[in-house]
Amino acid sequence: MKNVDNLIESATELAGRGLSRGEIADELNVSRETASWLVERGGVESEPDQEPRATASPQDIHVDWSAIGRDSRRLTHVSHAMADLISKDDTDVGLTVGIEKAGVPLATVIANELDTDIAAYGPAKHQWEEGDIEDFDGGFSQNFSAVSDQNCYIIDDIITSGTTMKETITAVREHGGTPVGCVVLVDKQGLDEIDGVPVSSLMNVVSVAPEE
Ligand SMILES: O=P(O)(O)OC[C@H]1O[C@H](OP(=O)(O)OP(=O)(O)O)[C@H](O)[C@@H]1O
C-alpha cells in the first residue's frame, strides 16, 4: 500500500532524474499541484518561474488500485463491472480502445465481455523523451485492430486532468472512428462528458473540503 511518504520518495526520485512537475504528475497519477507539493516535501527546490510553494496539503488523492491490477481474477471481475456500465447502451459498438498502459488489460477483458475488437492507443507522453511534449504524437499499435469506421469505447484506469482521454478521443476521430463512450475505474474530475463523449466511471472522487 502506498502512503504519502512513498509518494514523496517517488516524487523526489523522479525530480532527481530531471522530470518536470507535469511529468511527475503523470507518473504518479496525481495533479500537477500535488506533484509540486510532494517534490517540495521531499526537500527539492521549486522549479524556476513556478507558482509559490504550496504549504498546505493539496486537495488531490493518489489512487492505488494495485490490489486489483496484480491479480488477474480481480482485474477480470472489475473489468466486467466496467463493461456492465456500458453494456445496456443501444449503440452498435465494434471496438474497445485501451489506453496504454493501464487501460489495455482492462480493455482486453471488456472487449471480450462486449464481444468487440480491441485496439491499443499509446498517448503522446509515452513517446516523450526530451524537449517539448507538444512535439510528440501518440499512436495506435499495429498489433491490434484499426479504428476506422468503428464505433468505439475508450478505456483507461483513471482520469486525473482528462488530458489523456481527450487526446485519445481526438486520435480516434482523426483515424476515422467514432468514440461513443469513455469508461474508467476512477474519475477524479467527476466528468459527464469529454468533447461530447459521455464518461462513465465505477467511482468518482468528490472533494468535501470547504472552499478557501
Ligand atoms: O487525466 P490525465 O491527467 O491525463 O491522467 C490520467 C492518465 O495518467 C495515467 O497514465 P500514466 O501514463 O501515468 O500511467 P500508465 O501508463 O501506467 O497508465 C493514467 O493511466 C491515465 O492514462
Automatic annotation (TrEMBL):
All residue ranges annotated as the Phosphoribosyltransferase domain in the record: 65-189
Any matching Pfam family: Pribosyltran
Region entry Disordered, spans: 41-61
Entry keywords, A to Z: DNA-binding, Glycosyltransferase, Transcription, Transcription regulation, Transferase
GO MF annotation list: DNA binding; orotate phosphoribosyltransferase activity
InterPro entries: GcfR_halob, GfcR-like, PRTase-like, PRTase_dom
Domain of life: Archaea
GO biological process, one term: regulation of gene expression
CDD domains: PRTases_typeI
Known role: DNA-binding transcriptional regulator that functions as a regulator of central sugar catabolic pathways.
NCBIfam families: PRK02277.1, transregGfcR_Halo
Identification of the protein by name: Transcriptional regulator GfcR
Species per Swiss-Prot/TrEMBL record: Halonotius roseus
Classification lineage: Archaea, Methanobacteriati, Methanobacteriota, Stenosarchaea group, Halobacteria
